[in-house]
């Protein structure tokens, strides 16, 4: 299923994973806005229609779970998926709509995005 018309905000402080994820998402038809930090992500939210946020968990200054709490307080209708190199879900990740390990690979990423978008009625 293609993500035509869906805009994903992809947040990661590391350049290579951010670029790779953005390329993979674009290959599936998603519009992608990339942010190198949680602060950049919050600014991007102010300027445009974001349908979903895909954020790395471990980032300096503000973690993915901290970003999620701020997003959910201000934009409760935007789903957030956290992605991490850790396989265990952090205790404070309960505000996120999904948590996936990086080791899950691209298919788990695409499946999870699709499921969350369907849950929010952004995709059939």
What's the topology here?
Layout: E1 7-11, H1 15-27, E2 31-35, H2 38-47, E3 52-56, H3 64-74, E4 80-84, E5 98-101, H4 105-119
Parallel strand pairs: 1-2, 1-3, 3-4, 4-5
Mean pLDDT: 91
Spatial arrangement of strands, main beta sheet: 2-1-3-4-5
**Level-1 CATH class name:** Alpha Beta
Helix content estimate: 25-40%
| Rg, Cα atoms, Å | 13 Å
Give structural notes.
- 40% of the residues lie in helices and 19% in strands.
- The protein has a 5-stranded parallel sheet, sandwiched between helices.
- It is an alpha/beta fold and 124 residues long.
- The model has no long low-confidence stretch (mean pLDDT 91).
List keywords for this structure.
alpha/beta; Rossmann fold; 4 helices
Condensed summary:
Helix content is 40%, strand content 19%.
């Amino acid at each position: 299923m293609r993500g035509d018309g869906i805009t994903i905000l992809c947040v990661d402080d590391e350049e290579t994973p951010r670029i790779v994820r953005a390329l993979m998402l674009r290959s599936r038809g998603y519009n992608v806005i990339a942010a190198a930090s949680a602060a950049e992500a919050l600014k991007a939210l102010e300027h445009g229609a974001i349908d979903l946020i895909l954020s790395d968990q471990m980032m300096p200054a503000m973690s993915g779970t901290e970003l999620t709490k701020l997003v959910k307080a201000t934009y409760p209708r935007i789903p957030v998926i956290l992605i991490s190199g850790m396989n265990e879900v952090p205790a404070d990740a309960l505000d996120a709509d999904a948590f996936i390990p990086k080791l899950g690979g691209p298919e788990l990423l695409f499946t999870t995005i699709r499921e969350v978008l369907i849950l929010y009625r952004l995709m059939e």
